[in-house]
Amino acid sequence: MTASVLIGLLAGIASGLLFFLPLPSFIAGIGWGWRTAALAGATAAILLTSILALRAGLVHLIAFGIPVTFVCWLAFLNRPKPGVASATTAGTSIEWYPVGRIIAWLAFMAGGLAGIAVLAVATDYESYTTAIKSALNDNAIRQLEIVVGKTFSSEDRAAFVELVVRAYPGMLAILWLGLMLSSLWMAGRIVQASGRLKRAWPEISTMEFPAATPLIFVASLAATLVPGLLGVIAGGVASALAFAYLVMGLAVVHCVTRGNTFRAMILIAIYLAIVVLGQFAVVPLTILGVGEPLFRLRDRIGTATPSNGRPNK
C-alpha cells in the first residue's frame, strides 16, 4: 500500500469520525494530491454510511468530500509565467492558481450548498416555512426567551420565525465557508511545516477575486428581494459572497498596514472589534472589500507584490 493511499484512508477515517471537520482531508489533499483527498472523502462517506445511514454519507460527500477534492485540485494548477521559457516548482517561474479565485470558488460553493440545503427541506416557500416552524417548537422558543430574558408575544414569535426562514441559508453558507477557509489555511500551514508543500505559499493580502464577482454579489443581493423560495436561496449566495468580501477587506488592511510601526496594534484592534462589535466592524470591512477593485487602496498605499506575480500598476 503506497503512502498516499494510506494517508487517504486515515484522513477519511478521521474526517468521518469528526464529520464536520474537513481538516484531515485537506491535509491529505494538499500534502499528497487531490486524488488522496478524493480517497479520503470516499472513505469518510463509506464510514458514515456504515455507522449512521446512507444519507449521512451522502451529506458528507456533497458538503465536504467533493468540495475539498476540487479545492485541492485547484490549489496545484499552475503554468509558466508569461515571458519565462521554462518553469520549475523549486523556482519562481511558476504561476500558481490564484488564492483569490480559490476563495471565490469556495464562496460560490457555499451559496450553492445552502441552496441545496433549502431545497432538501422543501421545494416551495409555504412548505419550507412550515418546516422551519416545526423545527422551532415551543420548547426551543422558551429556551430563547430564557436567554433574552423576555416573553415573546405572538407577533414576536411570527417575526422570529420569519427571520429564521430568511437567515437559514445565509447562516449555513457562512458557517460552511468559515469552516472550509480555516481548515484550508491550517492544513496549508501544517503541510508547509512538514516540508511537503509543493507550491509557493500565496500572498493572501494581495488576493483578487474574478472580475464578475461584484456583479454576482449585486445580483444576489437584488434577488433577495424576490418573494418566495428564490429570495431565500439568493440570501445564501449573498451571505457567502459577503463573507468572502469580509476576508477581502481584512486582506486589504493587512496589505496597506505593511511597514506601519503600529501594524500589530492596528490588526489586533480590528480583530478585537470584530469579536466585540460584531456587525458594526464587519460591515465596514466588507464594504472595504467590495470597494477595493474600484479604489485600489492596495495599489495606492500597499507595498506588496500582487498575488498574480505582476507589479502594481
Q: What can you tell me about this protein's structure?
A:
This protein has helices at about 5-20, 25-30, 35-50, 55-75, 100-120, 125-135, 140-150, 155-195, 215-225, 230-255, 265-275, 280-295, 295-300; strands spanning about 80, 95. The chain is mainly alpha-helical. The chain is globular, with a radius of gyration of 22 Å. Residues about 85-90 and about 305-313 have low confidence and may be disordered.
Q: In terms of topology, how is this protein built?
A:
Blueprint: H1 3-18, H2 23-32, H3 34-51, H4 54-75, E1 78-80, E2 94-96, H5 99-121, H6 125-135, H7 138-148, H8 154-194, H9 213-223, H10 229-256, H11 263-277, H12 279-295, H13 297-300
Antiparallel strand pairs: 1-2
Helix pairs in contact: 1-2, 1-3, 2-3, 2-4, 2-8, 3-4, 4-5, 5-8, 5-10, 6-8, 8-10, 9-10, 10-12, 11-12
